[in-house]
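Batch 3, record 17
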Amino acid sequence: MKPQILFARLTLLMLAGSLAGSAQTPARLSDFIRPFVGTKGEGNTYPGPAAPFGMVQLSPDTDRELWDTASGYEYSDTSIMGFSLSHLSGTGIPDLGDFLFMPQVGEPKLVAGPKDHPEAGYRAPFSHDQEQASTGYYKVKLLDRNVTAELTAGERAGMMRFTFPETDKACIMTDLQHFLNGAKFKLIWSHVRVEDSSTVTGFHLINGWGKERYLYYAARYSRPFDSHKIMSDGKEVVYDSFKNYRFRSRNEAAGTNLQFLAEYKTHADEAITVKMAVSAISAANALKNLDAEIPTWDFDGLREQTRAKWDKEMGRIQLVEGTPEQKETFYTAMYHCFQAPNLYQDVTGEYRGLDSNIHNAEGFQNHAVFSLWDTYRATHPLFTLIQADKDADMINSMLAHYDQSADHLLPVWSLQGNETWCMVGYHSVPVIVDAYLKGVKGFDKERAYEAIKTTAMNPDHDGVATYDKLGWVPFDQENESVSKTLEYAFDDYCVAQMAKSLGKNDDYAHFMKRAASYKNLYDPTTGLMRGKNSKGEWRTPFDPHLFEQGGDITEGTSWQYTWYVPQDVPGLISLMGGKEKFSAKLDELFTFGANASQGLDDIQGRIGEYWHGNEPAHHVIYLYCYAGQPWKAQEKLRHVLKTQYGNKPDSLTGNDDCGQMSAWYIFTSLGFYPVCPGSDYYVIGSPAVKHAVMRLSNGKELTIKSENFADENVYIQSVLVNEKPWNSVFLPHREIADGGSIVFTMGPQPNKSWGTASTLIDNSTKP
Amino acid sequence: MKPQILFARLTLLMLAGSLAGSAQTPARLSDFIRPFVGTKGEGNTYPGPAAPFGMVQLSPDTDRELWDTASGYEYSDTSIMGFSLSHLSGTGIPDLGDFLFMPQVGEPKLVAGPKDHPEAGYRAPFSHDQEQASTGYYKVKLLDRNVTAELTAGERAGMMRFTFPETDKACIMTDLQHFLNGAKFKLIWSHVRVEDSSTVTGFHLINGWGKERYLYYAARYSRPFDSHKIMSDGKEVVYDSFKNYRFRSRNEAAGTNLQFLAEYKTHADEAITVKMAVSAISAANALKNLDAEIPTWDFDGLREQTRAKWDKEMGRIQLVEGTPEQKETFYTAMYHCFQAPNLYQDVTGEYRGLDSNIHNAEGFQNHAVFSLWDTYRATHPLFTLIQADKDADMINSMLAHYDQSADHLLPVWSLQGNETWCMVGYHSVPVIVDAYLKGVKGFDKERAYEAIKTTAMNPDHDGVATYDKLGWVPFDQENESVSKTLEYAFDDYCVAQMAKSLGKNDDYAHFMKRAASYKNLYDPTTGLMRGKNSKGEWRTPFDPHLFEQGGDITEGTSWQYTWYVPQDVPGLISLMGGKEKFSAKLDELFTFGANASQGLDDIQGRIGEYWHGNEPAHHVIYLYCYAGQPWKAQEKLRHVLKTQYGNKPDSLTGNDDCGQMSAWYIFTSLGFYPVCPGSDYYVIGSPAVKHAVMRLSNGKELTIKSENFADENVYIQSVLVNEKPWNSVFLPHREIADGGSIVFTMGPQPNKSWGTASTLIDNSTKP
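Prediction for the assembled complex:
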């Protein structure tokens, strides 16, 4: 579609949105975004501005040490340390938060100070009454110093505007040693350099979640400094001809505790604006990024540019009807889905690769931050549907990562030129296969397959070689052996699907055999997945509710992981003795008393031992649909949508994990979900929208309508797909790939004849 | 000259050299080079191979902690730690020594161990009997392990060949935390990466003499490893599924104490060769450098290539007649002159600039390591004469440094993308002005002048602003105030010369006024240079023999620095009351009892308070020539040449300082010296060669002959310049700029009428 046409459509859609809502409804989709959602409690999102998939995320930090404040901002905190340039959205582990800018009045302070005594440092008390966050914009009053801070952001560069009171002693401090997870991670080195009287560049190297993360920044100030200081370990960097035996420049310094102070005398309400950009390559590139993206001092113009970008992104799914609360929830979820993977290349096309070398992204835009254990489930399948070009960029980025990997592995959990090895499995595979099989173009399928197969056959990685030989990962050789076995088996199903499509029949057979490995860990005496050692002996004693870091299960219990066979639910049902027994067992999951002391703090949203706050749960409710009891899924899905999502800061019950919690919301709201990425079908749940239009990646539109829609009408009575009656819970991708319509008719009571006799026809042989 | 012609000439010259010497005399000029010269005691040179001005210098390190072992190798040591890739030639401060390679047999050791117990570490005893160093080649037997190590080097890459005994347990270790000055400097970070089964890359960041020096290496091994290990803090980097909660690659690691072990089972006399290269930019560039420079495994071929390069360089001055000892001394001095400034850019043209950014050297080859306080004196003037193209590269490198300087300063003492601020003055200025005025082409004169003037007017640097205002650097505001004043005044003379040439008359006047500032510190009551405070009061009490780090004088005494007025010796003579008094005072300098406890250990070559081992002495003997007593200079110069230079490891009496000690030898041997770089004249001393031919930068030849040449015939009887009788001690550059001849007639007694009435006609007004 040509941009003009797109714009016309957007305008129309916006009007539609506007007319459908209340009189107060905003006219622009981006105005429904509520950046505070997920900032209180477990969500680990941040409230500051960012462009879609942007490289910078300017946002206030209230904490840099607590594990639970992974985005740097916790809504319950009452003071702000300052504003840093980069943030992770919803991860379980804190990182980034690079380079803190903080305006000060009076004698500058060089440390943040504790939360209970913010006055001991540069920390400032704030109140949510005098704070706002909207798309591309954040504003807060720093109460103790009477300074208003405003932030906006483009792709690689952002702006901060600080409005000062009248004072002889104002300064804008940059703390180069600021980054998140300061208690655990280490700043290796930093330097700062005054380029001219209104330009500064700096650098730091962090040994954090990734083993070495290089980041440079450049900042231009709207007013030349009246004076400037570099502080190192609390002392001004200055040449003293007697103390310093040799000359020392006051315009640059290197070390591990550096602050830069831009000092001013200000009049009342004087605004000083700082433009800043980052680069992983050099200060010169950060300056190029800055000057290319923000050539003027137009703060409001940049904010509007970014809003317009979000309008366009939000337009990919048009929620034609809905309450303001629902629209806010929905578009905020979309917003969170489009936070990551992040752009990670300079305007020159250069980026720092996994091998630390400087590469040129040729034919794609390099992206980083792949939280794949989470996002392969629904976020990437959502991209497959509505962000195919971006998904191709991401896949090309993953292939570049593979090329650069000393271990010849696709990313596991990659973070800006680093592999964190976080979590288990090789879930790059389902991302690529799902995209490939659903027609995403723009990457080389043979090259992709070579990377996929090499990854799945790696002799060193996490017990894969033994798994290939034995058919399971033995617990006496490897921790999290049950989760690894189950996840490898799913990933292998995906490898097999691509092998089949490429005519690699031997590979297909090999990986389909591996895809059935889950059977090796199903213990018929307990009806659960259970660890097995290299001699083939079961884990004894066996506590199926045990949650143990480094045990047999990854962030969960055997009861939770037993359901992890997305590639062959019928096979699992059969192992369990049929649909009735399977459903009854599933019922049990939701009725166990949740043990509050079990698991991790940030996994909430607990219904029995179903913990929606973590990803292993995400496909589980949909399993009822395979077992002939879709109405149970319908009721539970709507319950979770209603009780575990919303438009409030505390509306997320677990880490958003770079959009996976949110992508679950989007799919589930629309009435279907990719239980098995890499297959050709979705599973129909229960729609929570009355009328929505998805603009698919190919430009076609998929309209979703719910007749007789009401909060209490959670049960599907009937379905039309492309105007044909549809009596299956399984929705093939090909049915909607070229757009069309899905019309649900809803009611307050289950229609126990709809969908109950569905037969899964997957495009592959069952494992 | 076309290469073929040059080659033909070289061959002829080599033959000439061969015929002139004894029957054992080598046929190639490069074979006269004795790399061990200066490795014992103060010289601080290294014995390993390097290409002319090369980026790598592969050499054994015997020490990494002692200040006095600045090149890593001290001839008196009896054990070798290993072989590292980069070395400084003759500096007073240890640095570089990056990445140590050491073959081992048996259980690998990870620390070097102490000198008195080498068996406690990987250190190996060696004997000079089983060690050799020649041009482009070094070989040593590691006695305890029966391994022979051989080294050769190209520009950015080198090779090591290790010949092992038969063993199941051989390894080649790379210690990434090795660098020189380990006791004082700090390794900030390092990483290593196994690229494939015979290729490794690595990196370290050093906070050393320069604040942050980045270096990458790449190594390819002639045989794939049987196995490999990365060691971090003494432990193998390996994935242990129970100890490591998440996967950990065994193919890469980052940290501060890393070793890489390439492990082999070897048969008797099995040679394993390693090719290695460096880059300041990336591992990828190091690999490019490696593969471009050393495409094959031909160790001997590379050695021969480098010998041929040195033959060419040595051919710039043809010592047609001379004893083997003299030729060895002479060509080794040439060799040391052509060690630095070093090439500092990759084959891609990229280099890391002073601003840490990656730059492309356009139109020049970037060089680093500028020991300017030393080398402006004679090394660069030698380059002006016979290495003009290289000098232009260096000047363009200095101008790039200026462009990249946060302080808008030309280099003071620059080290590979860093400014060390070592020593005083702004001696980039005489280097550039000397080259400019003597016709070196290839740099932009207006751009150069702008850099020169801005540097000389810097408001922050080392008291320059106060000096500009008062006419001296006051000792109550600045240490080394006397040396700074005197050196600034000389540098300012040079600024003025260039200003005059460019028609900038106001600048000329301003800087010529500053060039006379030395007069402000001449104390007529003592007849010496003496500190003055900002009120104009003399330093009291005043000890003219005081040597005090951080006192009024830089590495010297008032008695030594009083002679530092190269730009206006007649003016100094006049201040001192005329030539007789001046000469008598100069006589005194050579007769003081040297106080052994005074000064620095590495400043030797002491004759009274004349300390030839440090640069402030280097022009002093020549001052007799200005005062009508050239025969005193003649005798003393020949004495120093004979007693303080030679072909033995201990033949240097002070730090060679990147070739300055050696350049003094070259000029002085040839019979003239650039007492005042930036002027248009040399001062004639006493030639120590019978017949030499300089091939000037413009291809013309200058022939120097000494009639009646003999060891004892140190006195000039008469001189012909271009066949004209020459009765002046001053030799204008223009007389020899297009080649020609200087014919000295020597005798055992002074001819007190030759040269005694010389009048200095400088091309400038006197200051």
